[in-house]
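Notes from hallway chat w/ T.B., transcribed later so I don't forget. T.B. wanted the structure written out for a chain they're using in a teaching module, and asked if we could keep both sequence and structure tokens in one place. Agreed to drop them here.
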Amino acid sequence: MIPKLFNTAERAAKARQFQCALSAARLWHPPRKILDVGCGTGLLLANLDVPLRTCRVGCDVRAELYAHAGARNTGIDFIQANVNELPFSHTSFDLVVCMAVMEELANWQDALAIMAYCVRPGGVLYVTMTNGKMLSQLYPLLARTGIKRNAAEWSYVHSSLRFDERQARYGFGLNELHSWRYVDVTPYLMRANLSFLRAVPVTLLAYTARLIAPSFGHAWIKHPA
């Protein structure tokens, strides 16, 4: 079986769902410059439906993942870098995304502040965070049915218990995000994954997400200069 990270079809589907969710949340304004922090193989970034002139930059501390994807990553500039030491100037990007990475970071708040530094006025910072509270209860139930999760999945769950998703609207207390406008993207992600949920009001989905969504999508819009 092809690992998900290297499965082009799976990455393309994820890219469509991500882009659809941001569009529905009115956060997708064809960006001129996109940064994917912790891009891994870069295949999600490569499969975004953007104009050819769009600058797409991926960075990851593990260069071997990107190198393994090879020629499938057309049109992407890759930079090997640690998320806590991003080599980009102030207000460099219209959209900065960081998916399934925060759980791996000891200094996740510092990383969030550094990513915010890279967003231009009017731009968007988007991150995902695992719903550890829900999964820490679900995984033992699945184990009773014979469905066991691996050590890496449990590690993400335990690490994500540090995050209080209710504080996301306040920028997790960071000065860098204090005045930014928060958007909960989670209900839009749910709709993008399951089309029948488009009939359910966003406010109801947002409440339900805390109970059933495996991860949260948080976005902050930087006020125009």
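Follow-up for T.B.: Residues 4-221 form a domain with the Rossmann fold fold (CATH 3.40.50.150). Might be a good example for the class.
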